[in-house]
């Protein structure tokens, strides 16, 4: 409610997309293990001694989580980037 109230007053800060990104990251951290386990649940992995099927599954789950976090970090970097000085000067002149 506060975000909806404050976002029209500060359009340059992009409060709503930042808040949505925060909620999305919190939601993804809760459901990531489930997504990873759903991906690997139907795959039959070989069972060689040092590399057991559970190890293969954990590796794949961790790769999926890492990929999702990289995508989310790129998105948040775009959201939280500070405007350049030339853009700020153009906005001040307008």
TrEMBL record:
Compartments reported by the entry: Membrane
Pfam families, alphabetized: Solute_trans_a
Family annotation (InterPro entries): Ostalpha/TMEM184C (IPR005178)
Bilayer disposition of the protein: Multi-pass membrane protein
GO cellular component, one term: membrane
Primary localisation category: membrane
Keywords (A to Z) from UniProt: Membrane, Transmembrane, Transmembrane helix
Name assigned to this protein: Uncharacterized protein
Protein species of origin: Phlebotomus papatasi (Sandfly)
